[in-house]
Design a protein that fits this description.
single chain; 742 residues; Bacterial polysaccharide co-polymerase-like; 8-stranded mixed β-sheet; Rossmann fold; elongated; 4-stranded antiparallel β-sheet; alpha/beta; disordered N terminus
C-alpha cells in the first residue's frame, strides 16, 4: 500500500520549544487581562465609589503641636560622690527618659482630670449623637442597649485614647521636642499639648520641691550626727595626747631614737668584728700555751704585734748579735764571752715574760670585747622596743587625727549644701514652652485621596490577580498555539462557531452554503490531509475526540462533502453507539448500515447510498449492536475495509470518543490519518492529552488536531492570532461565480 508509515505520520507532529511556550504564556496573561478588562474596570469603579463614600464620610482629624525646650542638666542636692539623690546618665539617656515621662500614663491621667475630658463628646460615647442614617435603619431603634461603662472604665478608656493620640517627636540635634495631639476638635487639639507641657513643668517643680524638702531634712539630720561624731573624735584625740604626754601638735618626733638605733647598730657591728678578731688571737695563744700548737708563744704573730714584745724582741736580737761577735773573737771562757752569753740569756727570758704578758693582755681584751658586744646588743634591743612603742603611739595618733579631719570635712560639706538648698538653687524649671500650640485651620487627616487611591490600586491588583488566577486555573484549550504547546500535536485547522440555518443543519453546511468561514476552514483541513501523503492515492481519514459533543460528526460529514468534490469519497458512520448522520443526510431509518454489513446481513449495495445532489457516498451505522467493539475488531470488518479501500479514494470514518470506549483505538490501526477534534474553550487539555496518549500507544497515525467551535470575534480580541479571519474577511474578500467587472 502506497501510504506513509505510522512513524512518518507521527514525525509530522509538532513539538513546540520551551522558549516559545514561555513567550506565549506572557502573552496569554496579557490577553487574559485584556479579556477581563471591563470586569476589572467595573470592580475598580465600584470599589472607588465605595472608598470615596467611606473616605468623605470620615470625620476630619486636626493636629496641633507645641514646641518644648527640655533643659539638659538638673541641679543636684549634693555631689554624686556624697549622695545619690538624682540620676545623671548620658545626655541621650537623660532626654529619652524625659520624653517617656511626658508620655507616661500618670501625666495622661492628670491631663484628663485637669481638662475634664471625660465630659467631652469626643471621648464620652454617652454624649455622642446618633448619626444621620440612624433614622433610616429601624434596627438602630430596636437594638438592645449597650452595657453602660462604669466611671473607672470610662476614665481608663479616655486615658488610653489620649495616650494613643498623643505623639512626641524630638527635633534632631536640639533640645527641643514637638508635642502633638490629634482630635476632631481643632481647639481641643491645640489645648491638649499646651496643657500637657504645663503639667510636665509643674509636676517636675513639685517633685523637685518635695525632693528639696526631703534633702533639707536629710541634711539637717546628717549634720547633727556629723557634728556629734566630730566632737567625739576631737575629744578622743585630746584625751590620747594627754594620756601619752604628747606635746607636739603634729605628732611625736622620732629623729632621736632613730639616730640612736642607727648608732647602736653600727657599734654592734664593730664590736662583733673586734670580738671575732680577739677570739681568734685568744684561741691561738691558748693552743700555744697548752702545747697543742707547733709554734712557741713568742713566735705567734698576734703576740709579736704587742709593743713590749717587739721591744723585747729587739733587745734579744741585739744581745744575740753581740754574742755572735764575741764568739768570733773570744773563747768560751773569756769574760766578755761569758758576759755576752749572760746578756743573751737575760734577753731571751725577758722576751718570754713579755710574751706571757702580751698573751694575758689578749685574754683580757677578748673578755672585754665580748662583754662590750653583749652590752651593745642589750642597748640595741632596748632601743628597738622604744621605737616600736613610739610607732604604735604615732599610728594611733594619726588614726585619731584622720577621724577628726574626715568628720570635719564631711560636716563642712553638709553645712555648705544646707546653705545652698536654703538659698533655693533648685527652683529653676526643667523645661519651658517655646511655641504654644494653636488651633489648626485645616485638617491633618484622614488623607482622603490616599485612601481612595490605595483602595483603587488594591482593587486593580485584586482584579488583575483574579483574572490571572482564573486564567491560570483554566485548563481548557482555547487557541491553536495551545493545541500545539499543550497537546504536542499539529493544529491542522480551526473551525469557527457557526449557527445552523433553519433548513440547513451543520452537518450539511459545506454542501448547502460553502461561501463562508466555516466552509473555508473545511477546505483548509482537506488540503492538509491531502498534502500529508501525496504518494498515497487511497486515504482512510479517522475523526475522533476525547469526549462526546466536541463536533467530530459535524466535521466528518462536512469534510466528507469537501473530499467528494475532488475524489471519490465514502463516509462511514463507525459510531454505532450514538448514530445521528441518518436524520441529517436523508435516510428514512430503514436502510441497513455498517453493523448489518459486518454481520453479513446485507451487502455493500444496500448499505451504501449516495447523498442527493452530491458525489458523496455514505454508510450509516445501521442497527445498534449489543457490542460494537466486537464487530470492529472482527476479521470481517478488516476484510470489508480492505474492499472499501479498493472502491474509494478517500474514506472518512466517524468514530466514537477515545476516553469512553476503545472503538477509536481499534479503528485508528486501519487509518492512514487520524484527526483529533477538540472543542475550543470547553475540553480540558489533560483529558485531550490523555486521549492522544492512548492513540500514540497503538502507533496511530495522528495527523493533528482540529480546534472546533472557536469564536473568531472573541479570539481576535483575546488572542490576536485570528485577526481578519472572521466572517468580515470573507465578506470583504468575496466569492464570485464570474470575474468582477473592471
Amino acid at each position: 500500500m502506497n501510504t506513509l508509515t505510522r512513524q512518518e505520520m507521527q514525525g509530522l507532529a509538532f513539538e513546540p520549544q520551551q522558549p516559545e511556550i514561555e513567550q506565549l504564556d506572557l502573552v496569554r496573561y496579557w490577553r487574559a487581562i485584556a479579556r477581563n478588562k471591563w470586569r476589572i474596570m467595573a470592580l475598580v469603579v465600584l470599589v472607588g465609589l465605595i472608598a470615596t463614600l467611606y473616605a468623605y464620610s470620615l470625620t476630619p482629624v486636626y493636629r496641633s503641636s507645641a514646641t518644648v525646650l527640655v533643659e539638659g542638666s538638673r541641679p543636684k542636692a549634693v555631689s554624686i560622690e556624697e549622695l545619690q539623690f538624682f540620676y545623671t546618665g548620658a545626655n541621650r539617656d537623660y532626654f529619652l527618659t524625659q520624653f517617656e515621662i511626658i508620655k507616661s500614663r500618670e501625666f495622661a491621667e492628670r491631663l484628663v482630670r485637669v481638662m475634664g475630658l471625660t465630659k467631652h463628646p469626643e471621648f464620652n460615647g454617652r454624649l455622642v449623637q446618633k448619626p444621620w442614617y440612624a433614622a433610616l435603619l429601624p434596627s438602630f431603634g430596636t437594638a438592645a442597649p449597650a452595657i453602660q461603662a462604669t466611671d473607672e472604665e470610662l476614665v481608663d478608656g479616655v486615658v488610653n485614647a489620649v495616650m494613643a493620640r498623643t505623639s512626641l517627636q524630638p527635633l534632631r540635634n536640639t533640645q527641643l521636642v514637638s508635642l502633638s495631639f490629634d482630635s476632631t476638635d481643632p481647639d481641643l487639639a491645640a489645648r491638649v499639648p499646651n496643657t500637657l507641657a504645663t503639667i510636665y513643668i509643674v509636676a517636675d517643680m513639685e517633685a523637685r520641691g518635695e525632693a528639696t524638702r526631703r534633702s533639707m531634712q536629710f541634711l539637717a539630720r546628717q549634720s547633727e550626727e556629723l557634728k556629734t561624731k566630730l566632737v567625739e573624735s576631737e575629744r578622743a584625740l585630746q584625751q590620747y595626747r594627754e594620756r601619752e604626754k604628747i606635746i607636739e601638735a603634729k605628732g611625736v618626733s622620732m629623729s632621736g631614737p632613730s639616730r640612736q638605733l642607727e648608732d647602736l647598730t653600727s657599734s654592734l657591728l664593730d664590736a662583733r668584728k673586734k670580738r671575732a678578731d680577739l677570739e681568734a688571737a685568744y684561741e691561738q695563744v691558748n693552743a700555744s700555751r697548752q702545747g697543742k700548737a707547733a709554734e712557741p708563744l713568742d713566735t705567734l704573730p698576734v703576740v709579736l704585734r704587742h709593743p713590749l714584745v717587739q721591744r723585747a724582741k729587739e733587745v734579744e736580737s741585739e744581745a744575740e748579735r753581740r754574742f755572735n761577735d764575741a764568739s768570733k773573737r773570744y773563747g768560751p771562757d773569756h769574760p766578755r764571752m761569758v758576759a755576752a752569753q749572760a746578756e743573751l740569756k737575760a734577753a731571751q727570758e725577758n722576751l718570754k715574760r713579755q710574751a706571757n704578758v702580751a698573751a694575758q693582755g689578749l685574754a683580757k681584751d677578748y673578755e672585754l670585747a665580748r662583754a662590750n658586744e653583749n652590752s651593745i646588743e642589750r642597748a640595741l634591743g632596748r632601743s628597738k622596743e622604744d621605737i616600736q612603742s613610739y610607732n604604735r603611739k604615732e599610728f594611733e595618733l594619726k588614726s585619731l587625727e584622720r577621724d577628726v579631719t574626715a568628720n570635719r570635712q564631711l560636716y563642712d560639706t553638709f553645712m555648705q549644701r544646707s546653705k545652698e538648698v536654703r538659698a533655693g538653687d533648685m527652683q529653676s524649671a526643667i523645661a519651658r514652652i517655646v511655641d504654644e500650640a494653636r488651633p489648626p485651620r485645616f485638617p491633618y487627616g484622614p488623607n482622603k485621596r490616599l485612601i481612595v487611591g490605595v483602595w483603587l490600586l488594591a482593587a486593580l491588583l485584586a482584579g488583575v490577580s483574579l483574572a490571572l488566577l482564573i486564567e491560570r486555573l483554566n485548563n481548557r484549550v482555547k487557541a491553536s498555539h495551545e493545541v500545539e504547546s499543550k497537546l504536542g500535536v499539529r493544529a491542522v485547522g480551526v473551525l469557527p462557531v457557526t449557527k445552523a440555518e433553519s433548513n440547513v443543519p451543520l452537518e450539511r453546511m459545506f454542501r448547502e452554503s460553502n461561501q463562508n468561514a466555516f466552509s473555508e476552514s473545511i477546505r483548509t483541513i482537506r488540503s492538509s490531509v491531502l498534502l500529508s501523503g501525496l504518494q498515497s492515492p487511497r486515504k482512510v481519514v479517522l475523526l475522533t475526540s476525547s469526549v462526546p459533543d466536541e463536533g467530530k460528526t459535524t466535521l466528518a460529514s462536512n469534510l466528507a462533502f469537501a473530499f467528494a468534490q475532488v475524489k471519490k469519497t465514502l463516509l462511514i458512520e463507525a459510531d454505532m453507539r450514538r448514530p445521528k448522520l441518518g436524520r441529517v443526510l436523508g435516510d428514512n431509518g430503514t436502510r441497513p448500515g455498517l453493523s448489518e454489513l459486518v454481520a453479513g446481513q446485507a451487502n455493500e449495495g444496500k448499505c451504501i447510498f449516495e447523498v442527493e445532489g452530491s458525489n458523496l457516498h455514505v454508510m450509516l451505522a445501521g442497527r445498534v449492536p449489543p457490542n460494537p467493539l466486537e464487530l470492529i475488531s472482527s476479521p470481517e470488518f478488516v476484510l470489508i475495509m480492505e474492499k472499501l479501500k479498493s472502491m474509494y479514494e478517500v474514506i472518512v470514518v466517524d468514530s466514537p470518543p477515545v476516553q469512553l470506549v476503545s472503538d477509536a483505538v481499534m479503528l485508528a490501526q486501519m487509518a492512514t490519518s487520524v484527526l483529533f477534534v477538540v472543542r475550543a474553550d470547553t475540553t480540558p487539555y489533560p483529558i485531550a492529552r490523555h486521549a492522544l496518549s492512548r492513540l500514540h500507544r497503538v502507533d496511530a497515525p495522528v495527523l493533528g488536531a482540529v480546534l472546533n467551535q472557536i469564536d473568531l470575534e472573541k479570539a481576535d480580541n483575546y488572542y490576536g492570532e485570528y485577526s481578519g479571519y472572521g466572517n468580515r474577511y470573507y465578506r470583504k474578500y468575496g466569492y464570485y461565480t464570474q470575474p468582477p467587472r473592471a
